[in-house]
Design goal:
It contains twelve helices and three strands, in the order αβααββααααααααα. The protein has about 325 residues and is mainly α. β2 and β3 form a beta hairpin.
Length: about 325
Amino acid sequence: TIYNDNTITIDKITNLAKNIKNIGIFHICIFLISILSFKQGNTFLALDTIVKKILPHSLATGLLDLSTTMHLYRSDWMFNVRMLRFTGTFNYPAELALGMIFILVMSYFYYKTKKVDIKLKAIITMIFIFIMFIMGLSRITWIGLAISVFMSSILFKKNICKRSSLKKSMSIIVIILLYAIITLNIPIVEIMYKSRENSNNARNLVYERAIEIGIENPVFGVGVKYDDPSILVPIGSHSTYIGTFMKTGFIGIILLISFIISMLIIWVKVRRNIMYNRTLYLLWQCCGIFLISSIIWMMTEDLDAPQIVAFYFFINCGLIIKLKDINEITK
């Protein structure tokens, strides 16, 4: 693991970023195929996994059917418009959106670390990754990315950065947007909420039921999610925090929140150790963007499904923890 690897170097991390970038390129191919299929009028595109092919048909039903089928995309309604909602190999569009944030920041880190100008190929790749992120149609990741970029790039700006004018420009743009929203009384929260109102209503029902079950079993929780036939998703879904409380009680949720707070503290504290190493500072920013995005994303989504999202999350945590050690090695 990254945490236990005492030989980890910036070159190894760059190679890791390269491989993650290649995952993004693979998804670009799937995305282009999905666009063509959607343009032909297909409302979804799904492929059976090897596991589903070997399962008896009588078993591959319900959640097991969903888990063993790779849904590359489906059509969904957003702002009263039927749109392609991309899923890729992540099985769920919100998970795809968070995964694309990690792929985007790691791709950016790779291209910048290679000390080459961001050439046309790199620009096109990152634009497509960002478009796939958008086409996950996950509102919480849109909010999470905006907040995380603001925090890592503006609030924690690098004093010796030569591009302070760019950051000042970004700050001015943010201030102008906030001023316009407030003075023009633009109901941005209401617009976002009503963009997929049916989904919100289903989530609220799941949250209410999960909290009720958690309160009935406050110490250790109930251990697993509940399957309610009257609700489309299992009780305990669509929120890592509420789901953890329901499944593991106050003990589990306290441990989870303690871990998240400790990661934020480590991320903030390590900045002063690496801020004069441009490569490590860039990695610090990229890791911070994904960490903060994930923390916000977990408010309305599950970290445990699919496992690739949890895999990305803990890779990122390992990198944050090792930043100080890597800085010592590179001195």
